[in-house]
Write a structure and sequence with these properties.
heterodimer; A: about 240 residues; mainly alpha; 10 helices; 2 strands; B: alpha+beta; five-stranded antiparallel β-sheet; two-stranded parallel sheet; 7 strands; globular
Chain lengths: ~240, ~240
Amino acid sequence: MADLKEKKENKPVVLFVSEEKEPLFSKKNRKLLTDPLNDDNPITVQVLGICSALAITVQLKPAIVMALAVMAVLAFSNMIISLIRNLIPNRIRIIVQLVVVAALVILVDQVLKAFAYDVSKQLSVFVGLIITNCIVMGRLEAFALGNGVWKSFLDGIGNAAGYGLILVIVAFFRELLGSGKLFGFEVLGHKGATLAESTGLYALGYENNGLMLLSPAALLTVGVLIWVQRSRNRKLIEKH
Amino acid sequence: MNRDSNAYTFLFAAIMVLVVAAALSFAAVSLQPMQNENIRKEKMQNILHTIGVETERDQAGEEFEKYITEQVALTSTGDVDPNVNAFEIDLTKEIKKPIEEQRFPLFIADVNGEHYYIIPLRGAGLWDAIWGYISLKNDVNTVKGAIFDHKGETPGLGAEITQSWFQQRFEDEKIFDQSGNFVGVTVQKGYSGGNNKDDNAVDAISGATITGDGVTKMIHDRIQYYLPYLEKQNVNVALNK
């Protein structure tokens, strides 16, 4: 035991080494940020994290808060795991990842409860369910365990941004078509009890589409997004 | 140390758990005051909501002072217990005590000369607790408004009791039947009463039978303990006596 200790003191444990000297935002690092927005989008290409995309995209505001919460959790859990990746015993690495993610999610939940109580009520269980969001565990296993801290951070931000982008697009259409509002503002006019009391589009007899408020509408919207993305970006189409 | 050895694995796990536990407890303890303040304000907002006063969270404190004229803790026999702060009563704990030991919080409001009695509710839904507030007009018969919340009802089904379209159905409903017996307000499946406000029933939510029954039971079970007090106050309780 004494021998071991001496050895350690002589050879300091190196937590992370930057293998090659490269600028912080080199072309490779920029790709970590931008790839998940389009070519490698977690939702529309990898089809991960669909559950929460269905649940919290009825309105824009909770969708944005959810995207930010996932971003915080993903970026920091990626960083922490990457930081200790050479210390983690291989056999319990999934458990370690889960503990880190769960701890961060609880932190986010507590902060929301203290500073954004209404939003935290609206998101309710879905903040807790970030723990089980496949994107988070997926990035930890696939990226953070094998890459440096800065790269892992960028990868986390990028993937959360890709997730958030889809969330915001879906929420935009669902809130606009489902309740005629954006961020709670009545952008299509006010719907009164009768046609005469209504203003804007509603005065012309326009009706909100109730289906957009239900979860299947999110699935339909994501489907349309995938369609649009693949017709614009041919290399995403699988060859058989 | 060998990273694949059992000792290292155990050591790593132990240290990790300690660090995480310390960080989380620190966060929970330091954020607690702010969270509690939010919960207090929300309670005030909910109470005011049942009497038709909508406030922002920031103003909840002042508005509550303005409209709520009295807060009393009652015994099951209808006496006021001056030693208990009604606002601080935690129904979660209170409801588990025997009836004689329970204290029943009652909030009395005055909005432009109209008197309202606001009764906190708590009961069980399908999965977990449900709770809310119901306010009665001066006749102690007509419902002014109601608000419900839940811990874990099914989203889209039982959880819909938090929606205003459901809560609005309770407005102007009566808690006494035509012959003056206390019946509460029943959440009824296959309701065909339309806008009838005198049948002591409202339309239920499809797919939320058990949550609806929980609401019915909670309204009946909680209000009944307030009747002795309301009678003593010489309020015109429509009891059949």
